[in-house]
Amino acid sequence: MKSFEPLRLAAISILLASCVATQQTHTKKNTQRMTLKWEENFNQVEGFDTTRWSKIPRGYSDWDRHMSDFDSCYAMRNGKLILRGINNTTVSGDTSRFLTGGIYTKDKVGFGLGRLEISAKLGNATGAWPAFWLLGQDRRYPDGGEIDIMEHLSHDSIVYQTVHSYYTISLKMKEPKKGGTAPIRPGEFNTYAVEKYKDSVVFYVNNKRTFAYPRIPTDKPQQFPFAEGDHFLLLDMQLEGSWVGKANPEELPVEMEIDWVRFYSFND
User: Fold this and answer.
1) Does residue 213 share a domain with residue 193?
2) Residues 140 and 16 grouped into a single domain
3) CB 150 within 8 Å of CB 235
């Protein structure tokens, strides 16, 4: 057996060299496979860019029932967008107990396949529910799907990352698993990201892969609508709801700071 030892060692050396070369190739490929196509740094002094963003109007759902265009819910500070949830003590004629700020790119900017990143610091308050998410551009809900890049509840040290669609909402299908949680650094800026592929949606927090939702073979409709067309982005501070519970007025105002948003397209 000893006579074969040099040959065995040589074969192992060649295999290891091949593995290293392959790893280096994959690493180089991964660093080159995306190109920055769009970014928002919120460097405006007076307000956000209205050619890209609009204030989210009030609605009747849990998440938008307190949305307001009141100036105190919005600010630009040190190159960051500030979105607040406040007690309503000054807006006459508005019967909402709370007022919240939110913006979206609906009908202005759409995002296709690629990687979307948001850098933000979240405030903490009982009943606070900040979120970054995507909805189908020019498509009725839930046909275009919903991608929740980040949802945070009250004082949690984790965030939720989830997908919703006709498949999960109307048909109530449980597989594949539609969401997960990830830890964050409370009180600090964290980076939240999602990558949309033709066959999967992949989530990240601080560049660590946290959860993935795949396209699967199924006879059920709209299991994976996320690769069909563009999605618009919503950034909003929400208060109260059946999931997060009641807000504590004594802990308000609460705010989140958004440093930047970046979108990278995948290279062919």
Assistant:
1) yes
2) no
3) no
In this structure, the answer to whether residues 200 and 91 fall within a common structural domain is yes
How far is it, in rounded angstroms, from Cα 210 to Cα 206?
Answer: 10
Give the integer Cα–Cα distance in Å for 51 and 26: 39
> 157 and 252: one domain?
yes
Supply the range of the domain harboring residue 16: 1-32
- Residue 130 belongs to a domain with what CATH number? 2.60.120.200
Indicate the pTM of the whole model. Answer: 0.88
pLDDT per residue rounded down to tens, the chain (268 residues)? 444 444 444 443 433 443 333 333 333 334 448 999 999 999 998 899 999 999 999 999 999 999 999 999 999 999 999 999 999 998 888 999 999 999 999 999 999 999 999 999 999 999 999 999 999 999 999 999 999 999 999 999 999 999 999 999 999 999 999 999 999 999 999 999 999 999 999 999 999 999 999 999 999 999 999 999 999 999 999 999 999 999 999 999 999 999 999 999 999 7
Number of CB atoms found within 10 A of residue 197's CB: 16
